[in-house]
Amino acid sequence: MPLQPAPASIPSPPLEWASFTVGPFTFHAYALIIVAAIIIATWWTNKRMTARGGEPWIVIDIVIPAVLLGLLGARLYHVFTHPADFFYEGAEWWRVFAIWEGGNAIIGALIGGAIGAYFACRFRGVRFLAFADAVAPAILLAQAIGRLGNWFNHELFGWPTNLPWGLEIPATNPAFPAGLPAGTLFHPTFLYELIWNLIGVGLIVLLGRMFRLGRGRTLAIYLIWYGLGRMMIESIRVDYSEIVLGMRSNVLGALIMVLIGIGLMIWSLRQRDTDVSIYTDDHVWSEEDESDRDAATDKSPAPDAEDSVVKEDSVEISQEESDDNEDEEKVPAETETRPAS
After folding, report:
1. Confidence tier at 80 by pLDDT (50, 70, 90)
2. What predicted TM-score, i.e. pTM, was given to this entire model?
3. pLDDT value at position 37?
4. Does residue 56 contact residue 50 with C-beta atoms inside 8 Å?
5. 154, 172 in Cβ contact below 8 A?
6. ∠20-25-27 over CA atoms, to 5°?
7. Residue ranges per domain, the chain?
8. Could you tell me how far CA 149 lies from the centroid of its own chain?
């Protein structure tokens, strides 16, 4: 059997795959991929937090507000950095919120998600940096999965290339650069970032086994690793972005991530103890504590039954006192009517 020639390019999925309809509902591949990424990241974060003494699934109380504010931040950041795509004559205003069409900035998601997670951690008595260290590699994995959504949407590709892994983009794509012939291949930046993120996940897990990564050190590694990769990959993308201080807005945002990560690492290395409880009151959750609390609850008498016994005893005592009083009143009355001897 003759060998098949190696593929000369990476095809883009048919646009029909970007969405499908089931009854009255329309499902978008991009949105389903994002949901899958969130579920996987939540599951892994739960495992990492319980391994550090956290209550199972307490992560849900933190993830829900973090995801909601993260989605809002992702969309708003993208809109603000790509205003020409949303604000023009005849534009449909509601598309600003059409997240299923793509265009959700990771940097904005991190900002919004961090705000939501911070306040949720304060409410649940969880140290924010402890949660951040647990969720950091899970976020990186979720970002790798989410980049598949860009592939389905035919978006966020890079410069033209003749490399054998060049990405096929239809010439009818609105983002197809003007003046280039049909059939031009482009750098698959979605794939570059996917691979970079997966390497980062492996690196964080490996370093976590080799060193004590507490007090925000895992988060710092994440910020530095992702920021550096994003700066490089973002620099070769052809889609429009606002220029700030001579840089694409996302390049500037990634640079700020790197600087924050370096600052956080320096601060953390100056701290002595890294093995602290994830809870602000320094307790460690255990199944034995949960069992003891449940057992204590089961042994305590039902409030209704106890109240009923007390009420019945009170009624009996009151009735006895009433009978005694009646007898005492009757005796003097008989004495007074007895004739004198």
Report:
1. confident
2. 0.81
3. 97
4. yes
5. no
6. 40
7. 15-288, 301-337
8. 18
Retrieve residue 278's tokens.
Answer: 């994830």
Which has the higher per-residue pLDDT, 90 or 262? 262
Give CA torsion, residues 243, 247, 250, 254, to 10 deg. Answer: -160
Indicate the burial class of 18 (C-beta count within 10 angstroms; 0-12, 13-18, 19 or more): middle
Q: Mind listing the pLDDT tens digit for each residue in 83-96?
A: 877 888 888 888 88
Burial class of residue 313, CB neighbours in 10 A (0-12, 13-18, 19+): exposed
**Hey, how many other C-beta atoms are within 10 angstroms of the C-beta on 21?**
8
Q: How confident is the model at residue 102 (pLDDT cuts 50, 70, 90)?
A: low
Q: How far apart (Å, rounded) are the C-alpha atoms in residues 79 and 67?
A: 18
φ and ψ at residue 179, rounded to 5 degrees: 90, -10
CB 229 within 8 A of CB 198: no
At 341, is the pLDDT very low, low, confident or very high (cuts 50, 70, 90)?
very low
**What is the token pair recorded at 324?**
């005694």
For residue 147, say whether it is annotated as part of any ligand binding site. yes
For residues 326-341, give the mean pLDDT: 43
In tens, the pLDDT along 189-245 reads: 999 999 999 999 999 999 999 998 889 999 999 999 999 999 999 999 998 788 889
* Residue 71 structure tokens: 């989605």
Nearest-Å Rg of the Cα atoms of the chain is 33
Distances in Å between the Cα of 316 and the Cα atoms of 77, 138, 162, 309, 327 are 73, 65, 98, 11, 17
